[in-house]
């Protein structure tokens, strides 16, 4: 492949332009790495309506967007999250007390901000488009990735291969980059489906995000701009099918009952989407010349707003490691970079995957009395012991070690 024209040679090829791929592109381009990013579409033109998820971006993800110069464009669409309330709605014994976590206990900043996912992706895509170090390559899909000794070769469906020192697999749960690097996964299914939409309501949300813990899974209300909230509602697939088939009036009635009228009358309701839940963790986060970020590396149930926040930490970490290698005139996709990324991301990803899976299973299998009792005692201790509560809140926002500089407040 050495006879490829020079314009087809890049430092980094990013497969996938969801939030993690685009954040990785913007972060690496700041350090003068030459990037090519492949996807079918980049952001969304016109009316934003395809993706009804909203994303609770925790503090360090917001710092990342600030450091990338993207946050000022996101802020008008983002709502601060000041209080997180957890309500036990399982009806099981012993009852778990309600708990509220207030961001002001940790300092002046909110826990984070909630923003529509499609808006976030669009804004990141606009910034990537304006960056001379980033080439956005529209393709139906990338069809092959070869991890060779001195470079990787990436071929889109339409032909015209390019070479890159490093491949970033940001191509989602069914990642081609992961398969091409021969990285295996540990994966599992949940008998659950998450429904996502947003709605407006008559009562103000007051910056409070409420997580109802129910026997079928969590139901989460996340504040949005105005008197609106994002909804993630996890049910069995059969119940989710039933609820998805209801007309808007019927769905709002069920939602109002499930949330005990928490936000008053439910008014406008967006389109709804359903996501069957599964879990996946790659057995390695880097191999050959490829590293995995976001859903390509880990898929978790939507509890505690961990998924994309974890993915953005992946993106910031590979940007940090690869740009340091480039500064030292080393190979940004060489074995040292790949091994370091794998080592530094392992603890954060595995511990979050374990915690989220445990929390989810403790809801579904709560008939097991010791599990319910453990939850009840745990919440009571958090309520009674402020230093423990603060430590858990800090760790819930982000790991306190190995946070790349781009994810820290400047
Ligand atoms: C209901 C719900 C609510 C959630 N809420 C939150 C939350 O509040 N906070 C949070 O942190 N996380 C949340 N998450 C998780 C979050 O949505 C995901 O972590 C995040 O979207 C993953 O982004 P990604 O860029 O890694 O992958 P994706 O968004 O899946 O993007 C992958 C991209 O790769 C492209 N692609 C795939 N294959 C190829 C190929 N061969 N060639 C080229 N391109 C390719 C696709 O077109 C796509 O654009 C939620 C998830 C769900 C389901």
Task: Itemize the secondary structure elements and their pairings.
Elements: E1 9-15, H1 19-30, E2 35-39, E3 54-58, H2 59-67, H3 71-74, E4 79-81, E5 83-88, E6 99-102, E7 112-116, H4 117-130, E8 134-138, E9 142-147, E10 152-156, E11 162-169, H5 176-180, E12 185-201, E13 208-214, E14 217-224, E15 228-235, H6 237-245, H7 248-258, E16 266-269, E17 273-282, E18 286-287, E19 290-292, E20 298-299, H8 307-327, H9 335-364, H10 369-384, H11 386-397
Parallel strand pairs: 1-2, 1-11, 2-8, 5-13, 11-19
Antiparallel strand pairs: 3-7, 4-7, 5-6, 9-10, 10-11, 12-15, 12-16, 12-17, 13-14, 14-15, 17-20, 18-19
Helix pairs in contact: 1-4, 1-8, 8-9, 10-11
Overview of this protein structure:
The protein has a single domain (6-187, 278-407), classed as 3-Layer(bba) Sandwich (FAD/NAD(P)-binding domain), CATH 3.50.50. Strand 18 and strand 19 (290-292) form a beta hairpin. The two termini are 43 Å apart. Helix 10 crosses helix 11 (386-397). The model is unreliable at 1-5 (pLDDT under 50). Strands 5, 6, 12, 13, 14, 15, 16, 17 and 20 form a nine-stranded mixed beta sheet that branches. Strands 1, 2, 8, 9, 10, 11, 18 and 19 form an eight-stranded mixed beta sheet that branches. By secondary structure, it is an alpha+beta fold. The chain has eleven helices and 20 strands. The chain is globular. It has helices at 19-30, 59-67, 71-74, 117-130, 176-180, 237-245, 248-258, 307-327, 335-364, 369-384, 386-397; strands spanning 9-15, 35-39, 54-58, 79-81, 83-88, 99-102, 112-116, 134-138, 142-147, 152-156, 162-169, 185-201, 208-214, 217-224, 228-235, 266-269, 273-282, 286-287, 290-292, 298-299. The protein binds flavin-adenine dinucleotide.
